[in-house]
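Team,

Forwarding the record for the chain on the shared tracking sheet. I've put the sequence and predicted structure together so nobody has to dig through attachments.
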Amino acid sequence: MQSVFKTKPRRSGVAAMILSGATIAVAAMLMPANAESIKLGYSAPFLTDPFQAIMANQTLKAVKDAGMEAMPATNANGDAGKQATDIRNLISAGAKVLIVNPTDSQAIVPVLEFAASKNVPTVLIDIAPAKGKSAMIVRADNKGIGGKACEALGAAIGGKGKVLSLMGDQATTNGRDRTTGFNECMKAKYPDVTIIEQPTYWKTDKATSAAQTVVTTTPDLTAIYMQSDSVMLAGVLNVLKSAGKLTKVGEPNHIFLATVDGTPYALEKIREDLLDVAVAQPLDLYAKFGAFYAKAAAEGKTFTAGPTDHNSEIVPVGDNLMDYLPATVVTKANASDPSLWGNQTEK
């Protein structure tokens, strides 16, 4: 990894490989250390959809594989106030480091400040804070994700038509970035496309209701962009089926469908020709490197900006460093690729 620790790494029985004097290979750091176990707390925004539930399970497994003690994951159930209480409770129960996926990017800021006041470092995964200091943020380039969905969708519909955009929660960086990336790309490359935006707040019922309204009132709808197939896809497919508008990819009058996440369900629907494209988040890497950076933070290690040894870039964002992990565009051509996280777990 090209990012350099600012403190001298601890040696152990499974000594980390030293590169260029000060650089430590990620793979070695992921091995359990011969040291007192580090107690880690994991705070989830909600666990009601497959993406979040699978990510929590994989992250806690990665934490244990890294030689740390994993406390049971907390579930904020979409409530930013409850997440703040959950995190305070984790610290009170002895957590020495935290992995947090924020419910709200702004509301998490004072929580980060509280953790820092208790000398408990925090690593954020998937969603970034509006501000505030963390040890590392691990997420994908969500503006880029929105842009990739736009490029696939816009080209497929010939740059013309009406597109329903089912937005995620705009109080989160992911929701805002996926909206901005999609809209900026559309404006620049496909200006003749009309975008019909509908908020969903990452709620299945709201996404389904919005899809029902737009599908039934827009007979010339050409495409639907869903910012989370984990939350939205099943409901949208049911709406299209009920409206008599669910056709397979390549058939006449097919409504092009593009999603984000790459869940097992989404990959299955791609293989069945019911979903055109998904931009798969690197969920498995969120878990792996969330655990890696948490362990490093607990041991007093820090990083600098630069390329990594896992095909990503650590970049400065405000007061923080963010490891931008790559996302993959999935079509029927690669939907069975075993490297996709959605093919590594049960539905």
